[in-house]
Design goal:
The protein has a single domain, classed as Jelly Rolls, CATH 2.60.120.330. It is 26% helix and 20% strand. The protein is built from seven helices and 14 strands. It has an eight-stranded mixed β-sheet. It has a four-stranded antiparallel β-sheet with strand order 6-11-8-9, with no helix packed on it. The chain is globular and about 60 Å long. The structure holds N-oxalylglycine and nickel (II) ion (NI). Nickel (II) ion binds next to loops. This is Fe2OG dioxygenase domain-containing protein. Pfam families: 2OG-FeII_Oxy, DIOX_N.
Protein backbone atom coordinates (compact mmCIF):
# COMPACT_ATOMS: atom_id res chain seq x y z
CA UNK A 1 0.00 0.00 0.00
CA UNK A 2 1.18 3.53 -0.70
CA UNK A 3 1.96 5.56 2.39
CA UNK A 4 -1.13 7.09 3.91
CA UNK A 5 -0.99 10.87 3.75
CA UNK A 6 -1.95 10.89 7.44
CA UNK A 7 1.34 9.14 8.25
CA UNK A 8 3.61 11.88 6.84
CA UNK A 9 1.58 15.12 6.45
CA UNK A 10 3.43 16.70 9.35
CA UNK A 11 6.90 16.12 7.99
CA UNK A 12 7.14 18.17 4.84
CA UNK A 13 5.75 20.90 2.64
CA UNK A 14 3.20 20.05 -0.04
CA UNK A 15 4.87 17.72 -2.55
CA UNK A 16 4.68 18.66 -6.24
CA UNK A 17 2.51 15.60 -6.97
CA UNK A 18 -0.34 17.13 -4.92
CA UNK A 19 -0.44 20.47 -6.72
CA UNK A 20 -3.47 20.93 -8.98
CA UNK A 21 -3.33 22.97 -12.19
CA UNK A 22 -4.26 26.65 -11.64
CA UNK A 23 -7.84 26.35 -12.99
CA UNK A 24 -8.66 23.54 -10.55
CA UNK A 25 -6.98 24.94 -7.44
CA UNK A 26 -9.16 26.40 -4.72
CA UNK A 27 -6.79 29.39 -4.47
CA UNK A 28 -6.52 31.74 -1.52
CA UNK A 29 -10.00 33.11 -2.04
CA UNK A 30 -12.13 32.19 0.94
CA UNK A 31 -15.31 30.67 -0.40
CA UNK A 32 -18.11 31.87 1.88
CA UNK A 33 -19.83 29.18 3.89
CA UNK A 34 -23.16 30.44 2.66
CA UNK A 35 -26.52 29.64 4.03
CA UNK A 36 -27.87 29.14 0.56
CA UNK A 37 -27.69 25.34 0.44
CA UNK A 38 -31.24 24.28 1.35
CA UNK A 39 -31.84 22.83 4.81
CA UNK A 40 -34.95 20.67 4.91
CA UNK A 41 -36.82 19.87 8.09
CA UNK A 42 -38.12 16.33 7.63
CA UNK A 43 -40.78 16.84 10.29
CA UNK A 44 -42.63 19.22 7.93
CA UNK A 45 -45.85 18.12 6.19
CA UNK A 46 -45.51 15.67 3.33
CA UNK A 47 -46.81 18.13 0.75
CA UNK A 48 -44.24 20.73 1.79
CA UNK A 49 -41.47 18.14 1.86
CA UNK A 50 -42.19 16.86 -1.63
CA UNK A 51 -42.07 20.42 -2.91
CA UNK A 52 -38.93 21.46 -1.02
CA UNK A 53 -36.91 18.34 -1.77
CA UNK A 54 -37.82 18.51 -5.43
CA UNK A 55 -36.84 22.18 -5.64
CA UNK A 56 -33.51 21.57 -3.86
CA UNK A 57 -32.76 18.58 -6.08
CA UNK A 58 -33.45 20.55 -9.22
CA UNK A 59 -31.58 23.69 -8.23
CA UNK A 60 -28.62 22.39 -6.21
CA UNK A 61 -28.61 18.59 -6.44
CA UNK A 62 -27.60 18.82 -2.78
CA UNK A 63 -29.32 19.70 0.48
CA UNK A 64 -29.15 19.04 4.20
CA UNK A 65 -31.81 17.32 6.28
CA UNK A 66 -32.60 17.88 9.96
CA UNK A 67 -35.21 16.23 12.21
CA UNK A 68 -34.68 13.10 10.15
CA UNK A 69 -35.32 10.67 12.97
CA UNK A 70 -31.85 9.08 13.07
CA UNK A 71 -30.89 8.98 16.76
CA UNK A 72 -28.12 11.54 17.48
CA UNK A 73 -26.17 8.99 19.52
CA UNK A 74 -25.85 6.72 16.47
CA UNK A 75 -24.42 9.67 14.50
CA UNK A 76 -21.96 10.71 17.19
CA UNK A 77 -20.85 7.15 17.93
CA UNK A 78 -20.22 6.61 14.24
CA UNK A 79 -18.01 9.69 14.01
CA UNK A 80 -16.24 8.63 17.19
CA UNK A 81 -15.54 5.13 15.83
CA UNK A 82 -14.00 6.63 12.67
CA UNK A 83 -11.90 9.08 14.69
CA UNK A 84 -10.56 6.13 16.65
CA UNK A 85 -9.99 4.12 13.49
CA UNK A 86 -8.04 6.89 11.75
CA UNK A 87 -6.03 7.59 14.92
CA UNK A 88 -4.68 4.03 14.93
CA UNK A 89 -1.05 3.64 13.86
CA UNK A 90 -0.71 3.23 10.07
CA UNK A 91 0.42 -0.40 10.43
CA UNK A 92 -2.70 -1.27 12.42
CA UNK A 93 -4.94 0.38 9.87
CA UNK A 94 -3.25 -1.55 7.10
CA UNK A 95 -3.53 -4.86 8.91
CA UNK A 96 -7.25 -4.32 9.60
CA UNK A 97 -7.99 -3.84 5.93
CA UNK A 98 -6.56 -6.66 3.86
CA UNK A 99 -6.03 -5.26 0.39
CA UNK A 100 -7.41 -7.45 -2.41
CA UNK A 101 -9.60 -6.86 -5.43
CA UNK A 102 -12.45 -8.80 -3.85
CA UNK A 103 -15.33 -6.30 -3.89
CA UNK A 104 -16.63 -7.67 -0.57
CA UNK A 105 -13.47 -6.64 1.27
CA UNK A 106 -12.53 -3.42 2.98
CA UNK A 107 -10.06 -1.19 1.24
CA UNK A 108 -7.97 1.50 2.83
CA UNK A 109 -6.16 3.65 0.31
CA UNK A 110 -4.58 7.04 0.13
CA UNK A 111 -5.84 9.41 -2.60
CA UNK A 112 -7.69 6.97 -4.93
CA UNK A 113 -7.54 3.32 -5.98
CA UNK A 114 -5.57 4.54 -8.96
CA UNK A 115 -2.65 6.04 -7.01
CA UNK A 116 0.01 4.60 -9.33
CA UNK A 117 -1.56 5.93 -12.51
CA UNK A 118 -3.14 9.22 -11.44
CA UNK A 119 -1.39 12.46 -12.38
CA UNK A 120 -2.19 14.33 -9.16
CA UNK A 121 -2.77 12.83 -5.74
CA UNK A 122 -5.62 13.82 -3.44
CA UNK A 123 -4.99 14.98 0.12
CA UNK A 124 -6.93 12.23 1.86
CA UNK A 125 -7.00 8.64 3.02
CA UNK A 126 -10.21 6.70 2.48
CA UNK A 127 -11.64 3.51 3.90
CA UNK A 128 -14.29 1.81 1.79
CA UNK A 129 -16.42 -1.25 2.19
CA UNK A 130 -19.84 -2.60 1.31
CA UNK A 131 -22.44 -2.45 4.07
CA UNK A 132 -24.28 -5.65 3.20
CA UNK A 133 -24.60 -7.97 6.24
CA UNK A 134 -22.68 -10.68 4.32
CA UNK A 135 -19.63 -8.41 4.31
CA UNK A 136 -19.52 -7.52 8.01
CA UNK A 137 -17.04 -10.32 8.69
CA UNK A 138 -14.52 -8.35 6.61
CA UNK A 139 -15.02 -5.02 8.41
CA UNK A 140 -12.30 -3.75 10.76
CA UNK A 141 -12.27 -5.49 14.16
CA UNK A 142 -10.85 -2.34 15.77
CA UNK A 143 -11.93 -0.03 17.31
CA UNK A 144 -13.89 -2.40 19.47
CA UNK A 145 -17.43 -1.29 18.59
CA UNK A 146 -16.77 -0.62 14.89
CA UNK A 147 -19.03 -3.37 13.52
CA UNK A 148 -21.93 -2.76 15.88
CA UNK A 149 -21.95 1.03 15.48
CA UNK A 150 -21.36 1.16 11.73
CA UNK A 151 -24.01 -1.51 11.09
CA UNK A 152 -26.56 0.51 13.07
CA UNK A 153 -25.70 3.72 11.23
CA UNK A 154 -25.80 2.09 7.80
CA UNK A 155 -29.29 0.71 8.46
CA UNK A 156 -30.47 4.20 9.43
CA UNK A 157 -28.75 5.83 6.44
CA UNK A 158 -30.41 3.43 4.02
CA UNK A 159 -33.82 3.94 5.60
CA UNK A 160 -33.39 7.71 5.37
CA UNK A 161 -32.21 7.46 1.77
CA UNK A 162 -35.25 5.38 0.77
CA UNK A 163 -37.58 7.90 2.43
CA UNK A 164 -36.01 10.73 0.48
CA UNK A 165 -36.23 8.73 -2.74
CA UNK A 166 -39.95 8.15 -2.11
CA UNK A 167 -40.48 11.91 -1.73
CA UNK A 168 -38.56 12.49 -4.95
CA UNK A 169 -40.61 9.83 -6.78
CA UNK A 170 -43.76 11.61 -5.72
CA UNK A 171 -42.29 14.94 -6.83
CA UNK A 172 -41.34 13.90 -10.35
CA UNK A 173 -44.06 11.32 -10.93
CA UNK A 174 -42.14 8.04 -10.72
CA UNK A 175 -44.11 5.14 -9.29
CA UNK A 176 -43.95 4.40 -5.57
CA UNK A 177 -41.23 1.90 -4.62
CA UNK A 178 -39.23 2.33 -7.84
CA UNK A 179 -35.90 2.49 -5.98
CA UNK A 180 -36.68 0.06 -3.22
CA UNK A 181 -34.91 -3.10 -4.38
CA UNK A 182 -32.28 -3.61 -7.09
CA UNK A 183 -31.56 0.07 -7.64
CA UNK A 184 -30.40 0.60 -4.07
CA UNK A 185 -29.21 -2.92 -3.33
CA UNK A 186 -25.55 -2.09 -2.71
CA UNK A 187 -24.93 0.36 0.08
CA UNK A 188 -21.26 1.33 0.09
CA UNK A 189 -19.50 3.13 2.89
CA UNK A 190 -16.65 5.56 2.35
CA UNK A 191 -14.90 7.16 5.31
CA UNK A 192 -12.65 10.05 4.28
CA UNK A 193 -9.83 11.36 6.44
CA UNK A 194 -8.36 14.72 5.38
CA UNK A 195 -5.37 15.57 7.59
CA UNK A 196 -4.23 19.20 8.05
CA UNK A 197 -2.61 20.35 4.82
CA UNK A 198 0.51 22.55 4.45
CA UNK A 199 -1.06 24.53 1.58
CA UNK A 200 -4.83 24.21 1.08
CA UNK A 201 -4.77 26.78 -1.73
CA UNK A 202 -2.93 24.40 -4.08
CA UNK A 203 -4.54 21.04 -3.51
CA UNK A 204 -7.86 19.29 -2.92
CA UNK A 205 -9.25 16.51 -0.77
CA UNK A 206 -11.42 15.48 -3.73
CA UNK A 207 -11.61 17.43 -7.02
CA UNK A 208 -14.91 18.27 -8.75
CA UNK A 209 -17.01 15.15 -9.32
CA UNK A 210 -20.47 13.63 -9.44
CA UNK A 211 -21.05 10.61 -7.23
CA UNK A 212 -21.63 7.66 -9.57
CA UNK A 213 -24.62 6.41 -7.56
CA UNK A 214 -28.31 7.03 -6.89
CA UNK A 215 -28.08 9.03 -3.68
CA UNK A 216 -25.31 9.81 -1.19
CA UNK A 217 -25.99 10.38 2.49
CA UNK A 218 -23.10 12.17 4.18
CA UNK A 219 -22.20 12.63 7.79
CA UNK A 220 -19.75 15.38 8.76
CA UNK A 221 -18.80 17.29 11.90
CA UNK A 222 -18.08 20.95 12.60
CA UNK A 223 -15.11 21.24 10.23
CA UNK A 224 -16.10 22.51 6.80
CA UNK A 225 -14.58 21.39 3.52
CA UNK A 226 -17.40 20.20 1.26
CA UNK A 227 -18.42 22.58 -1.54
CA UNK A 228 -21.08 22.32 -4.23
CA UNK A 229 -21.00 23.93 -7.66
CA UNK A 230 -24.01 26.16 -8.30
CA UNK A 231 -24.29 28.37 -11.39
CA UNK A 232 -20.53 28.20 -11.88
CA UNK A 233 -19.69 29.16 -8.28
CA UNK A 234 -18.43 27.04 -5.40
CA UNK A 235 -20.64 27.21 -2.32
CA UNK A 236 -19.54 25.89 1.06
CA UNK A 237 -21.84 23.37 2.74
CA UNK A 238 -22.13 24.74 6.27
CA UNK A 239 -21.78 22.01 8.91
CA UNK A 240 -24.96 21.75 10.99
CA UNK A 241 -24.98 19.61 14.14
CA UNK A 242 -26.84 16.32 13.64
CA UNK A 243 -27.74 17.03 10.02
CA UNK A 244 -27.10 14.73 7.09
CA UNK A 245 -26.00 16.11 3.74
CA UNK A 246 -27.83 14.45 0.86
CA UNK A 247 -26.71 14.63 -2.73
CA UNK A 248 -28.28 13.46 -5.94
CA UNK A 249 -26.03 10.96 -7.70
CA UNK A 250 -25.38 10.92 -11.42
CA UNK A 251 -27.41 7.71 -11.92
CA UNK A 252 -30.48 9.31 -10.34
CA UNK A 253 -30.07 12.24 -12.72
CA UNK A 254 -30.10 9.70 -15.59
CA UNK A 255 -33.16 7.82 -14.27
CA UNK A 256 -35.01 11.13 -13.83
CA UNK A 257 -34.10 11.97 -17.43
CA UNK A 258 -32.40 15.17 -16.20
CA UNK A 259 -35.42 16.32 -14.17
CA UNK A 260 -33.16 16.09 -11.11
CA UNK A 261 -29.67 17.48 -11.06
CA UNK A 262 -26.69 15.46 -9.91
CA UNK A 263 -24.55 17.57 -7.57
CA UNK A 264 -21.06 18.48 -8.72
CA UNK A 265 -19.03 18.82 -5.59
CA UNK A 266 -15.46 18.89 -4.25
CA UNK A 267 -13.62 18.92 -0.96
CA UNK A 268 -11.09 21.56 0.09
CA UNK A 269 -8.55 20.97 2.83
CA UNK A 270 -7.53 23.21 5.72
CA UNK A 271 -4.25 23.82 7.48
CA UNK A 272 -5.22 23.27 11.10
CA UNK A 273 -7.75 20.47 11.54
CA UNK A 274 -8.27 16.85 10.69
CA UNK A 275 -11.58 16.42 8.93
CA UNK A 276 -13.47 13.14 8.74
CA UNK A 277 -16.58 12.55 6.67
CA UNK A 278 -18.58 9.38 6.25
CA UNK A 279 -20.53 8.77 3.05
CA UNK A 280 -23.16 6.10 2.48
CA UNK A 281 -23.56 5.62 -1.26
CA UNK A 282 -26.79 4.01 -2.44
CA UNK A 283 -25.73 2.00 -5.46
CA UNK A 284 -27.67 -0.23 -7.86
CA UNK A 285 -26.71 -3.89 -8.13
CA UNK A 286 -24.04 -4.30 -10.83
CA UNK A 287 -26.36 -6.10 -13.26
CA UNK A 288 -29.38 -3.83 -12.81
CA UNK A 289 -30.71 -2.05 -15.84
CA UNK A 290 -30.46 1.73 -15.70
CA UNK A 291 -32.65 3.81 -17.98
CA UNK A 292 -34.76 6.95 -17.81
CA UNK A 293 -37.93 5.92 -15.94
CA UNK A 294 -40.78 5.29 -18.38
CA UNK A 295 -43.04 7.59 -16.39
CA UNK A 296 -40.82 10.65 -16.91
CA UNK A 297 -40.25 10.11 -20.62
CA UNK A 298 -42.70 11.88 -22.92
CA UNK A 299 -42.80 13.05 -26.52
CA UNK A 300 -41.50 16.44 -25.43
CA UNK A 301 -39.01 14.95 -22.98
CA UNK A 302 -37.48 12.04 -24.94
CA UNK A 303 -35.03 9.67 -23.21
CA UNK A 304 -31.53 11.07 -23.04
CA UNK A 305 -29.94 7.64 -23.21
CA UNK A 306 -30.64 3.98 -23.85
CA UNK A 307 -30.71 1.39 -21.08
CA UNK A 308 -27.41 0.00 -19.79
CA UNK A 309 -26.15 -2.15 -16.97
CA UNK A 310 -24.88 -0.25 -13.95
CA UNK A 311 -21.58 -2.13 -14.07
CA UNK A 312 -21.01 -1.07 -17.71
CA UNK A 313 -21.31 2.54 -16.57
CA UNK A 314 -18.97 2.00 -13.61
CA UNK A 315 -16.32 0.39 -15.84
CA UNK A 316 -16.45 3.45 -18.08
CA UNK A 317 -16.45 5.78 -15.06
CA UNK A 318 -13.24 4.33 -13.69
CA UNK A 319 -11.50 4.15 -17.04
CA UNK A 320 -12.48 7.80 -17.67
CA UNK A 321 -10.84 8.82 -14.36
CA UNK A 322 -14.15 9.52 -12.68
CA UNK A 323 -15.75 11.67 -15.40
CA UNK A 324 -19.45 10.72 -15.25
CA UNK A 325 -20.47 12.64 -18.40
CA UNK A 326 -17.85 10.80 -20.44
CA UNK A 327 -18.86 7.50 -18.88
CA UNK A 328 -22.46 8.03 -20.05
CA UNK A 329 -21.45 9.10 -23.57
CA UNK A 330 -21.61 5.64 -25.22
CA UNK A 331 -25.24 5.21 -24.08
CA UNK A 332 -26.53 8.63 -25.12
CA UNK A 333 -29.21 8.86 -27.81
C1 LIG B 1 -17.13 11.66 -1.62
C2 LIG B 1 -17.34 13.06 -1.22
C3 LIG B 1 -17.40 14.70 0.54
C4 LIG B 1 -16.77 15.02 1.85
O1 LIG B 1 -16.60 10.88 -0.80
O2 LIG B 1 -17.51 11.32 -2.76
O3 LIG B 1 -17.77 13.83 -2.03
O4 LIG B 1 -17.20 15.99 2.45
N1 LIG B 1 -17.07 13.41 0.05
O5 LIG B 1 -15.87 14.31 2.27
NI1 LIG C 1 -18.66 12.80 -3.68
Amino acid sequence: MDKLVSSWYNDQSLPESYIFPPHERPGKLLVPRCNTVPVIDLSDTRTNLVHQILKASQEFGLFQVVNHGVPPNIMSETMSVFHKFFELPAEDKASLTVYTNDPKRCKLVTSTLDYDREKIHLWRDVLRHPCHPDCIEFWPRKPLRYREVVAACSIEAKKLGLEILELLCEGIGIEHGYFEHELTEDLLLGANHYPPCPDPSLTLGIPKHFDPDILTILLQEHISGLQVLKDGEWIGVRPIPNAFVVNIGYILQVISNNKLKGAEHRVVTNSSDHRISVVFCMNPAGNSNIEPAKSVVTATNPPLCRGFQFKEFLDNFYSMEGDADLALQPFKL
